[in-house]
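sorry for the late reply, my laptop died twice this morning and i had to redo everyting from scratch. anyway the thing you sent over, i finally got around to it. pasting the sequence first so we're on the same page, its 498 residues, then the predicted structure underneath. double check i copied it right bc i was rushing
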Amino acid sequence: MVVAALSAVAVGTTSCVFPGAHQAGAAVRLFARTRRPALPTSVLAGAPDVLAAGMAKELFLSAPVVVIASTNPADVAKAAARAGRLKAPLLLTSARAGSGAGSAAMRAEVDALHPRAVLAIGVPASVLSAQLPGVQVDTDPAQLPATSAPAPQRHRVVVLVQQGGPTATAAMAAAATARAVGAHVIVVPGYDPRADPGAIVALSAARPERVLAVGAGFGPVGRLASRLAVAETGVQLPGGGQVVFPMRRLVALYGNPGTPSLGALGEQDLSASIERARKNAAMYKKLSSVPVVPTFEIIATVAQASPGPDGSYSYETPVSVLRPWVRAATAARMYVILDLQPGRANLLTQAKVYEPLLKLPNVGLALDPEWKLQPGQVPLQQIGSVGIGEVNSVINWLARLTAQYRLPQKVLVLHQFRLSMIRDEQRLNTRHDDIAIVIHMDGQGTPQEKQETWDVITEAAPAGVFFGFKNFYTKDHPMLTPWQTMHRTPQPVMISYQ
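ok and here's the structure:
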């Protein structure tokens, strides 16, 4: 089948006599006529022969020669090379002689292209001749009519194909058809162009008007269009790409600028904090299979003993105070996470205060339920908790913000060391493509106590989340080494030091 309509607006007309021809002495050279895909973004799906036919239908109005190959990979590779030289569309067939459904489909696909001749590769000419009565079928390219390249595409068309995988033969055929009309083919390792730094660079340079993706895994169309909008900005995260995990590992220095009692980040000035974060990250370089990115986890709103002017028991650090730290970290190719200790304040209300910083591509958000108070509660008298509705309201808002400004994925961290801290956790909204959620185990104590807490937290977590781990310089007995920190299942994608 084809996801998204395959009909296109023709740029010319067809007739029974092939319309494209140049007179050169006694020889007539024929040329194909192309068309622009109808939709800005399309996802082609189905069996290999359906995918190949869909690509030809999207890009060709007519072709003097059509190449038809079996679905055998070696035949497809040979046919792709031949189609490239002929500037011809490449169709695939798995039908045998006499199979009515296959014959009818093949006839319809070929008739739509109005060819003078068909080149058969890996398919007996007698089989295709039986399926295509009245069409010249050859196995020798020398017997084909002379052809010229079609007129250059006036529209910027990009075709996305996955490298390898179940659609490899179809992708090869579709790519050959695309190159025949001058479309730009981008090969990606998976189905998300944001995850491939090379694809991001290519899409940013191409600025396509139309994108055709080969394989159902690229869909649905709406999601692919959103991913393309981000990729085309060309903006990449520290460590490369626009998908946060598992493409990198964050190693964070935690605290509040200028406040040593709140964590390691506040124990030195800005430049020294950057250097310390880099040294912490360097300890994990040999232990990690992905880039390790030094990170600031800055406590933006700080729980406090007094209610303050608004009665929230939470101090909101002004954006103007945090901005120099964010700017310096950005210049140093670091990631930044703003942590909220809300007291009695609403988490979404506090998150919106930092929207100017969260609009930046390398700034994420953390929620700390330990410091979320209910009416009548005060800090340090109990372990706080938050309902899943309030958490999801922040996630939904952050996802909208990320999509609105076409930003790379954002990190949303949930600190947790007791299951009671996030009420109704299984209803956590993990469906947003723009958000990477990390449940961050920040319990303290002996290695055995931390492992037990880790096991409880990871086993109870909903599907679709990543996990983080916190080490305490003074409250762990003893603090784990980087090797011990990494030696757990699942491996943490984010590690903080407080």
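The mean pLDDT is 91.
thats about all i looked at so far, will dig more tmrw
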